[in-house]
Specification:
The structure holds two protein chains of two kinds.
Chain A lengths: L2 E8 L9 E8 L7 H11 L18 E4 L2 E4 L11 E5 L6 E3 L2 E2 L2 H9 L19 H5 L18 H5 L6 H12 L7 H8 L13 H5 L6 H16 L1
Parallel strand pairs in A: 1-5
Antiparallel strand pairs in A: 1-2, 3-4, 3-5, 6-7
Chain B lengths: L12 H27 L5 H9 L1 H29 L3 H28 L1
Classes of the chains: A alpha+beta, B mainly alpha.
């Protein structure tokens, strides 16, 4: 059975003066396994190794981490795609709580700031607020986001200004509500994003598109928001 | 004063548009001037001054230079916003950059119409 090698970022703020990389070895067949499977086997060896996980099938977004220098979800990353030594670090740019677990507060503060819910002042109808199939189609590529944080923590603009720049995940969701035919707060939403920090820190380097495990395109959504603003101004 | 994260300056689109439009102006001018240079068998001082003695050439060159300065303003400001965290220092740098760019603009006019 092949030996798999791992270098994993370890940090326990209660006992460690500084973070360090720890080597692990695992006797296991990589074919057919995901990275998360290997991590759970490593956790049987060393139960102090800390990580988040929940659904283990790429739906909850809990096990986002930096895998060989690239953000992704451990549960849907095939182990045999990762090479001889797998280097794992927490998502970059966020405070580390312990090992691979980061503090997502800033990320979710930005998400909350774009009002991620339908704003509609009409009285609720008897059944649902209806959309045509064409109107519904505009939400494709937007609603699928699982808020794992891979994109925002791959974005240098978010690293520099996580308190001010909404980040690709938040902006994708901002556009998700701007694109929703049932939402009535378009002007307020655009006003809120018309800001040198909140939206215009994006310089279109597309790290977000590169890493998104759901293959979404936050850069395109940001471009669409800018287009709406231009349309409103001219 | 309380120390809170303050955002919501409600500008940004205009600067972003300026950066894009000025990039197009610079690209068109650079290609035109580059094309002219390739088309000339050789260029000496007389040919160069003759080119710039035309009023249109001076106007388009000034348009190019003003585009460059505006483009530089948005770019430098973005860098300062990322790296300079103290608002007071940021303001001082912004003012110095603006004043420097205005000096360059005046200087450009003097060079172009003094040839």
């Amino acid at each position: 059975m092949p030996t798999l090698r791992f270098k994993i970022y370890r940090y326990n703020p209660e006992t460690d003066a500084a973070p360090y990389m720890q080597d692990y070895e695992l006797q296991s067949e990589p074919a057919g396994k995901m990275l998360l499977d290997a991590l759970l086997l490593l956790k049987e060896q060393d139960d102090t190794l800390s990580l988040r996980k929940s659904c283990r099938e790429g739906v909850c977004g809990s096990d986002a981490m930096n895998i060989n220098g690239r953000n992704g979800l451990a549960c849907i990353t095939p182990l045999d795609s990762l090479g001889e030594t797998v280097t794992l670090r927490p998502l970059p740019g966020l405070p580390v709580i312990r090992d691979l677990i980061v503090d997502m507060t800033q990320f979710f503060n930005q998400y909350r700031s774009i009002k991620p819910y339908l704003i509609n002042n009409d009285p609720p109808p008897e059944t649902e607020r209806l959309q045509s199939p064409a109107q519904r189609a505009h939400l494709n590529g937007l609603y699928e986001c699982i808020l794992c944080g891979c994109c925002s923590t791959a974005c240098p603009s978010f690293w520099w200004n996580p308190d001010k720049f909404v980040g690709p995940a938040g902006l994708l969701q901002a556009y998700r509500f701007l694109a929703d035919s049932r939402d009535q707060a378009t002007a307020e939403r655009l006003d809120d994003l018309e800001d040198p920090y909140r939206l215009f820190r994006c310089h279109t380097i597309m790290n977000c598109v590169d890493v998104c495990p759901k293959e979404l395109n936050p850069t395109e959504a940001i471009g669409n928001i800018k287009d709406m603003m231009v349309k409103r101004m001219v | 004063m309380v120390n809170r994260v303050v955002v919501g300056a409600h500008y940004g689109l205009r600067d972003w548009l300026i950066q894009r439009v000025t990039a197009v102006v610079m690209a068109v001018y650079s290609l035109a001037l580059g094309g002219w240079l390739m088309w000339q068998p050789y260029v000496d001082y007389d040919i160069w001054t003759a080119l710039f003695s035309s009023q249109w050439m001076r106007i388009f060159t000034l348009l190019f230079l003003l585009s460059l300065l505006l483009h530089a303003w948005v770019g430098v400001r973005d860098v300062v916003m990322d790296y300079v965290k103290l608002a007071g220092v940021r303001l001082v740098i912004h003012v110095l950059v603006i004043l420097t760019l205005i000096v360059y603009a005046i200087w450009s006019v003097q060079i172009l119409w003094g040839m």
